[in-house]
UniProtKB/TrEMBL annotation:
Species whose genome carries this gene: Conexibacter stalactiti
Every Amidohydrolase-related domain range: 3-307
Protein's name in the database: Amidohydrolase family protein
Pfam families: Amidohydro_2 (PF04909)
UniProtKB keywords: Lyase
SUPFAM superfamilies: Metallo-dependent hydrolases
Domain of life of the organism encoding this protein: Bacteria
Annotated InterPro entries: ACMSD, Amidohydro-rel, Metal_Hydrolase
Length: 310
């Protein structure tokens, strides 16, 4: 079973096109032959890409962003009373839209967006709890987990405003997929080390670090060894193999996956930047992996984590 564990869908194609243009990929250094998808990223584009790749399920990871990307007034942590509470309805609406879309298309597994500067700790946990309880029976439209992009959202993974949510996710086995890698300002919002306090406080949290650490990939194996409960995905980094700040080739990427443990790594496309079919082809081309290890990366690990059956 093929599962894309990292995909984005936008309400309109033009929004996706603009998001791709406004988010330049710089952390992997330079690479002359990077190929990007020509699709914009609305539901029709995503469903077509999923079908063409033969993917059974796709985790849809949306992110709630605020204009000019405000950050905490003091330090790196948001106050207990969120200063942008006037945006709570907008955040909730984005999550509801995604769950409604997934109810219409059960191939989609919705992952919710959160922000400690928008909702209080209790409000966040209650909001996620309600959407995770949807779709009783078939499960269609039920929230399957949480997506974090702490660079774009400007908060630390261990912000106390999310502690109640992490307890809920730990109890209910709701996976959390988090962008992981450096930021251009070197603030450290999503470096591998930024997740250590979160894991220490919530050791049962089913946490997935995306992009295999991205531009920080050389530091990811040490974190993986320290926290064996961590999982990872191959989104984006697999398309940048050969970049000046990326694994040198598929053999080097495969060696890193083997060091971490192939059963802890999942395939993901980061659509609409890249195509689901491309990451599948790349995993099939990675040397020194057995058929069972490829099958785990391409879907079996995600199926168990996301609670879906073939």
């Amino acid at each position: 079973m093929l599962i894309d564990s990292h995909l984005h869908i936008y309400r309109e194609r033009e929004i996706g096109v603009r998001a791709k243009a406004d988010y330049p990929i710089v952390e992997y250094g330079s690479k002359a032959d990077v190929t990007y998808s020509e699709r914009g990223g609305d539901a029709a584009d995503a469903l077509a890409a999923i079908a063409e790749a033969g993917v059974a399920y796709a985790a849809v990871l949306n992110v709630f962003l605020m204009h000019a990307m405000p950050q905490p007034a003091e330090g790196l942590l948001w106050p207990a009373e969120p200063p942008h509470a006037d945006r709570a309805a907008d955040l909730a609406d984005l999550n509801a839209w995604l769950c409604d879309l997934a109810a219409e298309h059960p191939v989609l597994l919705p992952f919710l967006t959160v922000h400690p500067g928008v909702m209080t700790a209790a409000e966040t946990a209650d909001h996620v709890r309600a959407l995770a309880a949807r779709g009783t029976g078939s499960g269609a439209g039920r929230a399957r987990g949480i997506k974090l992009h702490t660079v774009a959202q400007r908060f630390m993974p261990y912000d106390p405003g999310l502690d109640a949510l992490w307890e809920l996710c730990s109890d209910e086995r709701l996976p959390v997929i988090a962008h992981c890698g450096p930021d251009r300002l070197n603030t450290g919002w999503a470096t591998p080390e930024a997740f250590a306090p979160l894991i220490e406080r919530h050791p049962r949290l089913p946490l997935v670090l995306a992009h295999l650490g991205g531009g920080d990939f050389e530091r990811i194996a040490a974190l993986a060894a320290r926290y064996p409960q961590l999982r990872f995905d191959l989104s984006e980094i697999v398309s940048w193999v050969g970049g000046t700040n990326a694994p040198a080739d598929l053999a080097a990427l495969s060696a890193l996956v083997r060091e971490i443990g192939p059963e802890r790594v999942m395939a993901g496309s980061d659509f609409p930047w890249y195509e689901p079919a491309w990451v599948i082809d790349a995993v099939e081309a990675m040397p020194a992996l057995s058929r069972s290890e490829r099958d785990a990366i391409l879907g079996l690990t995600a199926a168990e984590l996301f609670g879906v059956a073939g």
